[in-house]
């Protein structure tokens, strides 16, 4: 799936959330704008449930939190660049500064896995990661990730 179809500019932000919990709350708040039928609390609980199974911090300063929701009909993504890296229980024990969150309909597991895999591959590209970290604002961040 083309990234610009699931990631809207208003779900792309540069922030200083301070903690894993705060960044998951921020993701939930941003995603709730895309799905007014959902509360940010429902989204937060979905993300938290996944994190309890194991951290989505994949290393190299990257985390890909994700969750499944029964009352959405298409995926929604959120991209956050943390101005100050945060502890995220990553596999390499390093703090995280780039988070790509994905929320998908519970009945679209295959598409969900494919999108996560594609994003992980893109974020593991050293050039893309370097460009993301050099961005100065949300607009630039959105341009880099969707190009």
Automatic annotation (TrEMBL):
UniProt KW Metal-binding keyword: no
Pfam families: PTS_EIIA_2 (PF00359)
Annotated localization: Cytoplasm
SUPFAM superfamilies for this protein: Phoshotransferase/anion transport protein (SSF55804)
Alphabetized UniProt keyword annotations: Cytoplasm, Kinase, Transferase
GO terms (BP aspect): phosphoenolpyruvate-dependent sugar phosphotransferase system
Gene Ontology terms: cellular component: cytoplasm
Domain of life, source organism: Bacteria
The UniProt record lists the keyword Cytoplasm: yes
Chief location of this protein within or outside the cell: cytoplasm
GO molecular function: kinase activity; protein kinase activator activity; protein-N(PI)-phosphohistidine-sugar phosphotransferase activity
Positions of the PTS EIIA type-2 domain: 1-147
Coiled coil, from the record: none
Biological function: Seems to have a role in regulating nitrogen assimilation.
PANTHER family recorded: NITROGEN REGULATORY PROTEIN (PTHR47738:SF1), PTS SYSTEM FRUCTOSE-LIKE EIIA COMPONENT-RELATED (PTHR47738)
Full protein name: Nitrogen regulatory protein
The organism of origin for this protein: Shewanella atlantica
Lineage, highest ranks first: Bacteria, Pseudomonadati, Pseudomonadota, Gammaproteobacteria, Alteromonadales
Protein encoded by which gene: ptsN
């Amino acid at each position: 799936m083309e990234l610009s179809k699931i990631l809207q500019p208003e779900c792309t932000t540069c922030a200083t959330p301070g903690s894993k919990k705060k960044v998951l709350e921020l993701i939930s708040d941003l995603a709730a704008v895309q799905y007014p039928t959902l509360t940010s609390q429902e989204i937060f609980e979905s993300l938290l449930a996944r994190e309890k199974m194991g951290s989505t911090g994949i290393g190299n300063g990257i985390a890909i939190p994700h969750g499944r929701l029964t009352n959405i009909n298409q995926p929604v993504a959120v991209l956050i660049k943390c101005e100050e890296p945060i502890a995220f229980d990553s596999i390499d024990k390093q703090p995280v500064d780039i988070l790509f969150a994905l929320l998908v309909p519970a009945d679209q597991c295959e598409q969900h896995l494919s999108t996560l895999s594609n994003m992980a591959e893109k974020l593991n590209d050293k050039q893309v990661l370097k460009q993301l970290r050099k961005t100065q604002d949300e607009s630039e961040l959105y341009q880099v990730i969707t190009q």
